[in-house]
Amino acid sequence: MNTGSLFIPKSRLKKIKERQMAEDSRPTAEEYIKSLERSNKASEKAIRAAIGELGLFPNCNVLDIPCGIGNPSQWMAEEQSTANIVGIDISEEHLLKARMLTERKKTSNSVVFLKGNINNLEFEEDTFDFIWCCDGLWPGAVEIGCLAEDPYEILSEMVRVSKDGGTIAIVFWSSQKLLPGYPLLEARLNTTLAANIPVTPQTDSDLHFMRAPLWLEKTGLKNIKSRTFAADINGPFNNERKKAMLGFLHMFWGAAETELSPEIWEQYKTITNPDSDEFIFNKEGYAGFITYTMFTGSVVK
Asked: Which of 15, 49, 158, 220 is deepest in the core (most CB within 10 A)?
């Protein structure tokens, strides 16, 4: 079942994605890792709360994929100090940063990071008690950076390497309120294709991430649950946090200009310009939030 009749060709989506990563603003590997650090710091409260609901037990085996720069793996090690955690990512730069983190936090005995591909897990069957996948299973066109058109083959691979009775948790950034005082502007920005990649009007509604319980059910998992966790964002902001917040805004709406009226875009640019008197992160009384939604299911073999 499609969510609309308007057809958006993959070539157009690719151009939107390319605008988001335009040459004049494309981050270096170091800059991108820095943006991940900022994002992880902002979402830490929500992610730690989700990890706390997993039920990690002593000496359990955990797979974190894709592990990024290693923060959730580290937080799981802090939640259950005797857990055996394996983080997998395809990026050598991410893995290097993740290893540095565990060395600094002195958890390298319980966390190991390996290069690997989520589409082809090089583990034996019945290996893991928990599989954690945060922001790594967005269904969509591979041309715009998604890992698969649908989640089912990847989920089946997760089931293969899970133990009977194991838990699979897939987690998504699910909502945000970042422009307090400008609800109509934020609502309009959120209607753009740029803000909703990889979703398009022709995306099968069953492949939207909030339909993840259906994915888990179709993959044969039982005891399926969902829960949403919030991380509040409050001012005042130092310069580092202002950079982080501007990074969030650029991630969502930085490529939306061609889909908006000049008046709407000018208002957005004004309140996100650090040199403007209306710069939103200089205003007193800022309050916003981001949410993550976790979907879990039990493996039955």
From this structure: 158
3-state secondary structure of 231: strand
Task: Dump pLDDT digits (tens) for 107-155.
Answer: 777 899 999 988 889 999 999 999 999 999 998 777 777 778 889 999 9
Tell me whether strands 287-298 and 222-234 are parallel, antiparallel or unpaired: antiparallel
Q: Cα(18)–Cα(288) distance, rounded to whole angstroms? A: 28
Going from N- to C-terminal start, the domains of the chain cover: 10-298
195: which residues sit within 8 A by CB, 6+ positions away? 189, 252, 253, 256
CATH classification code of 10-298: 3.40.50.150
Pairing of strands 111-115, 128-134: unpaired
Phi (first) and psi of residue 282, to 5 degrees: -100, -10
E strand spans, the chain? 61-64, 84-89, 111-115, 128-134, 162-177, 222-234, 287-298
Long-range contacts of 263-268 (CB under 8 A, 24+ apart): 264/185, 264/188, 264/189, 267/182, 267/185, 268/185, 268/189
- Do 289 and 158 touch, CB atoms closer than 8 A? no
CA distance 65 to 73: 9
Tokens of 276: 């403007």
Q: Could you report the per-residue pLDDT of 228-262, keeping only the tens digit for each? A: 999 999 999 999 899 889 988 988 899 999 999 99
CA distance 285 to 177: 14
User: How many C-beta neighbours within 10 Å does residue 214 have?
Assistant: 14
Q: What are phi and psi of 298, to 5 degrees?
A: -100, 135
206 secondary structure, DSSP code: G
Across the beta sheet with 162-177, the strand order is: 111-115, 84-89, 61-64, 128-134, 162-177, 287-298, 222-234
d(CA 85, CA 87): 7
| DSSP code of residue 111 | E
Number of separate helices (H) and strands (E) present in the chain: 10, 7
